Amino acid sequence: MEIRSVFTEPNGRVSVVCPNCGLTITNEALRRASPAKPIQIKCTCNRIFKAAFEKRKYYRKQVELYGSFIATSPIRDENDIVVTDLSLTGLAFETVGKHMLRINDVGTVRFTLNDVQRSIIIRNVILKSVRDNLVGAAFCDGRQEKALAFYLRP
Ligand SMILES: [Zn+2]
């Protein structure tokens, strides 16, 4: 089955165009449509197809943004961080001091974008990698973040 590309619109919504009738379909489930796990979509024209972000459509940006990460599970651990890499699906950060973070820890990351509005981003994340002070994390709250989508547009 052909896989159609999911797009992030400037307003933060995610959508895909039906290959049969050309209708733009907006569906929050598309947010989780990775190349490895496409989402099946049924259009109002009855065409069924699969949709996923293309790998190169995962916009990521090298950044230097200051903030904090508070791990809440399994233990509380509060850290000042510098976000170094940002995408719609997650981020990488360096902790400023010593930490007790481990893979699969869950918590809340908070940082300020250097956009015009100085948007404050507060998201729940799960840690995917921890190497010394370098931490990789994935957003796990399924929220749509207009400011972030706008910030990361190509
Ligand atoms: Zn259609």
Structure description:
β5 and β6 form a beta hairpin. The chain has one helix at 146-151, and strands spanning 3-5, 7-8, 14-17, 24-26, 39-42, 48-52, 60-73, 77-87, 90-95, 106-112, 120-131, 134-139. The protein has 154 residues and is mostly beta strands. It folds into 2 domains: 3-57, no CATH class; 60-151, Beta Barrel (Thrombin, subunit H). The strands form 3 sheets. The protein has a 6-stranded antiparallel β-barrel with strand order 7-8-9-12-11-10. Strands 1-6-5 form a 3-stranded mixed beta sheet, with no helix packed on it. Helices cover 4% and strands 50% of the residues. Zinc ion is lined by residues 18, 20-21, 23, 43, 45, 47.
Which properties best describe this structure?
binds zinc ion; 4% helix; 12 strands; 1 helix; Thrombin, subunit H; mainly beta; 154 residues
CATH architecture of the largest domain: Beta Barrel
- Largest sheet features: 6 strands, antiparallel, barrel
Total DSSP helices: 1
Percent of residues in helices comes to: under 10%
Please report the total strand number as a whole number. Answer: 12
Order of helices and strands: EEEEEEEEEEEEH
CATH T-level fold name of the largest domain: Thrombin, subunit H
Structural class: mainly beta
Distance between the termini: 28 Å
CATH level 1 class label of the largest domain: Mainly Beta
Q: Low-confidence parts lasting 5 or more residues at pLDDT below 50?
A: none
Strand order of the largest sheet: 7-8-9-12-11-10
General form: elongated
Approximate strand percentage:
over 45%
Mean pLDDT: 89
| Rounded radius of gyration (Å) | 17 Å
